[in-house]
């Protein structure tokens, strides 16, 4: 639960501090990329798998197709890109700290989820070894 509270607090802070008068082309590109990745991830994983809590549903199915063929946590990638777009509209110490906290939190949350996935799915370790966490090639 703490991961979700931290995640949404950081996102909310970045949204509140967004300077709409200062949205650049870079921010727009990040917003569009975030939307494309997020929607693609939901389509590929099926809405029934969607869960903001770092736990698996009873009927959870491992998604390894579409965008999940390349990255294991595209929803987190989507959130990071969206929030980077917000950050670029108003680069302040508070916003940079919020972005760092969000990124670290999503990394730690993804590690917990991966432990749960390894326990549930025998083939998860192989999948993990052949994909990237948030961004392809990084």
Keywords:
138 residues, mainly alpha, 5 helices, 0% strand, globular
Can you put this structure into words, describing what you see?
- This protein has 138 residues and is mainly α.
- The chain has helices at residues 2-16, 25-45, 74-89, 93-120, 124-129.
- Helix 1 (2-16) runs antiparallel to helix 4 (93-120) and helix 3 packs antiparallel against helix 4 (93-120).
- It is globular and about 50 Å long.
- The mean pLDDT is 92.
Q: What class would the helix/strand composition place it in?
A: mainly alpha
Please trace the helix and strand order, writing H or E for each element: HHHHH
Q: Note poorly predicted spans.
A: none
Rounded Rg: 15 Å
Q: Percentage of helical residues?
A: 55-70%
Domain unit count: 1
Distance between the termini: 28 Å
The strand count comes to 0
Outline the fold blueprint.
Layout: H1 2-16, H2 25-45, H3 74-89, H4 93-120, H5 124-129
Helix pairs in contact: 1-4, 2-3, 3-4
Summarize the structure.
The protein is an all-alpha fold. The protein has helices at about 1-15, 25-45, 75-90, 95-120, 125-130. The protein contains five helices and no strands.
